[in-house]
Automatic annotation (TrEMBL):
GO cellular component: peroxisome
Organism: Sparassis crispa
Cited PANTHER family: ALANINE--GLYOXYLATE AMINOTRANSFERASE 1, AMINOTRANSFERASE CLASS V
Protein family: Belongs to the class-V pyridoxal-phosphate-dependent aminotransferase family.
Domain Aminotransferase class V: 25-343
SUPFAM superfamilies with a match to the protein in the record: PLP-dependent transferases (SSF53383)
Residues reported to bind substrate: 352
Name by which UniProt lists this protein: alanine--glyoxylate transaminase
This enzyme's EC code(s): 2.6.1.44
Any one of the GO BP annotations: glycine biosynthetic process, by transamination of glyoxylate
EC supergroup of this enzyme: transferase
Location of N6-(pyridoxal phosphate)lysine modifications: 198
């Protein structure tokens, strides 16, 4: 164990990037290595195997490359949908809109089921849509970071299996992997798109996508060529398979140091205490504490139903007469960094707190208490300042 300690800093509790453990940052400071060296090969190999573990899969194919969450949308759109094919999208916010936009760039015909603001798409609407047309793919944002709405992926998958079993299921898990349960094999999910900087507790810079063997087969049987270069699985599949088997292969240089950091974080998530299941419980508990404190302050959250509300973040409306400038700087003065709104129609009306990774798992840090205290004090001070 290294003695490295990061500089004192304000607590980062936006919904990603999140606080990163000392040992993960220290792993990032590994001496520069050849990406083709025998020493590095098992590091990426371990990341591939442990990424699969985080999603409770034994057979799915992880793709780990330099990029961000957005590159996962390109991978889904470019590799799994051929131009003119139909996609059904469950849209619960800003990030859903981005995913839809990306699918259309590659020629998909996307039908959107638009949730009411703060709500999830009703399961009956999904069933009806699937029964009315043949879709190559159904996709959703597991947690839309703009609204904190949680999609019931398990229930959606059950409907797909019953109504349209050939339809592939893709989940944007950028704001949910490692903070919300996802059981790829048991639920029959075909693709999970994520990134390093949220629940996975690593600095930003990795695009992480996991595809079921069924999805890989669909990709391998496609008729038209993949209309992407960097995002093409034709390029990446041999590379990922080689590293997992223990030999190097090259398509584009991986972010070597970040891969060391990711392995350090995955070691904690999949191989040490608390277990992955316990982590989900810790995320639920921390989320409840923050949401209870928000309710005690008389504040309203964006999600209209607590069953469709994320456990890794909270989105909170400003009360009437208050704006971001009343609260966010006051939180920052107390060394707590939260995020403003991001949804195009409502962005000035709310703010967001992330509670993922070490901030909730490592209770000794006291991050949840610090957030709650800063919230209470900031609102008390802001309210007092309005009284003339
Ligand atoms: C749900 C969701 N999807 C996709 C993205 C895009 O990821 P990135 O910013 O890493 O490209 C984000 C980013 O916050 C997100 O929250």
């Amino acid at each position: 164990m290294s003695t490295f300690k990061q500089q004192p800093h304000k607590l980062l509790v936006i919904p990603g990037p999140i606080e990163v453990a000392d040992e993960v940052l220290y792993a990032n400071a590994h001496p520069s290595m050849s990406h083709m060296s025998a020493d590095f090969v098992p590091v990426l190999g371990d990341c591939i195997r442990m990424t699969r573990d985080v999603l409770y899969s034994t057979t799915a194919q992880p793709f780990i490359m330099a990029g961000s969450g957005t590159l996962g949308w390109d991978q889904v759109a470019a590799n799994l949908v051929e131009p003119g094919e139909y996609v059904l999208f469950l849209n619960t916010g800003y990030f859903g809109e981005g995913f839809v936009d990306c699918l259309r760039v590659y020629g998909a015909h996307v039908d959107e089921l638009q949730a009411k603001f703060g709500g999830a798409v009703p399961l009956s609407d999904i069933e009806q849509a699937l029964a009315s047309k043949k879709y190559k793919l159904i996709a959703c944002t597991h947690v839309d970071t703009s609204t904190a709405v949680l999609c019931n992926v398990k229930a959606v998958a059950e409907i797909v299996k019953k109504t349209a079993p050939d339809t592939l299921i893709a989940v944007d898990g950028v704001c949910s992997v490692a903070s919300e349960e996802i059981r790829m094999d048991a639920w029959g999910i075909d693709v999970v798109v994520t990134a390093s900087q949220k629940g996975l507790g690593t600095p930003p810079g990795l695009s992480i996508v996991v595809a079921s063997q069924r999805a890989i087969q669909v990709f391998e049987n496609r008729v038209t060529p993949v209309a992407a270069y960097y995002a093409s699985w034709k390029k990446w599949l041999p590379v990922m398979r080689a590293y997992e088997k223990g030999s190097a292969a090259y398509f584009a240089t991986p972010p070597v140091n970040l891969v060391y950091a990711y392995r350090a974080s995955l070691d904690r998530i999949t191989k040490s205490s608390p277990t992955l299941e316990e982590r989900f419980t810790l995320h639920r508990e921390a989320s409840k504490r923050i949401k209870d404190a928000v309710a005690e302050l008389g504040l309203k959250q964006l999600p209209v139903d607590s069953n469709s509300s994320a456990n890794g973040m909270t989105a909170i409306y400003f009360p009437d007469g208050f704006t971001a400038s009343d609260i966010i700087p006051r939180m920052a003065q107390r060394d707590v960094v939260v995020a403003g709104g991001v949804h195009k129609d409502y962005k000035d009306k709310y703010f967001r707190i992330g509670h993922m990774g070490i901030s909730v798992v490592d209770k000794e840090r006291g991050d949840v208490e610090k957030v709650i205290t800063a919230l209470k004090e900031s609102f008390a001070e802001a309210r007092a300042s309005k009284i003339v």
